[in-house]
Specification:
The chain is α+β, with helices and mostly antiparallel strands. About 35% of the residues lie in helices and about 35% in strands. The chain has three helices and four strands. It has helices at about 20-35, 60-70, 70-80; strands spanning about 5-15, 40-45, 50-60, 85-95. A four-stranded antiparallel β-sheet has the order 2-3-1-4. α1 runs antiparallel to α3. The longest helix is centred in the first third of the chain and has 16 residues, at about 20-35. The radius of gyration is 13 Å and the shape is globular. The mean pLDDT is about 95.
């Protein structure tokens, strides 16, 4: 049996594209929360740097997260935000407490 997976995804938008990136990120939430294996999928925006967004996600397993990563709504997001994101870093984590 697979262990629960926590994902912390850091998205840094170009300042002039921040609103576009935010709208596109918000579109992902309902689709993703309905996916099999999604425990939570929460989007945050930094209080001091509004160009910085962070998803905090928990998945039942790595395999179910991988299915999520291949879904069409993520491909649509990537296409819509092409050239608008400075940095996109994903941390795959395990809860140790």
């Amino acid at each position: 049996m697979s262990n629960q997976l926590t994902i912390v995804a850091r998205i840094l938008a170009k300042e002039e594209k921040r609103d576009l990136v935010k709208v596109e990120l918000l579109k992902l939430i309902d689709f993703t929360r309905a996916e099999k294996g999604c425990i939570n999928y929460d989007l945050h925006q930094d209080n001091k740097d509004p160009n910085l967004f962070l998803f905090y996600e928990n998945w039942e397993s790595y395999e179910l997260w991988q299915i999520h990563m291949g879904n069409q709504h993520l491909a649509d997001y990537l296409k819509a935000t092409e050239g608008a994101v400075v940095e996109f870093i994903v941390h795959e984590m395990t809860n140790i407490s």
